[in-house]
Write a structure and sequence with these properties.
Elements (H helix, E strand, L loop, with lengths): L1 E5 L2 H6 L3 E4 L6 H12 L8 E4 L2 E2 L11 E5 L6
Parallel strand pairs: 1-5
Antiparallel strand pairs: 1-2, 3-4, 3-5
Amino acid sequence: MINILLFAELQEEAGVDQIKVDKAGVTVFELKEWLLQQYNLTSLSNTMIAINESYATEEDRVKDGDTIAFIPPVSGG
């Protein structure tokens, strides 16, 4: 089981701030594709990715017990 954290507009699109799912062993890219299909998260393409609070790439594999965060760009003034 993995825990997916969503922030900002991703939370709004999904209607939840976190998702628990049995997807251990997939790449971050495959996880993003699944999220796009399941939750129609169109903002995923512009996000930073972290696994267990360390930045990750789309090629990284997710392990059982991992927490994956998708962090949209931050804007401010």
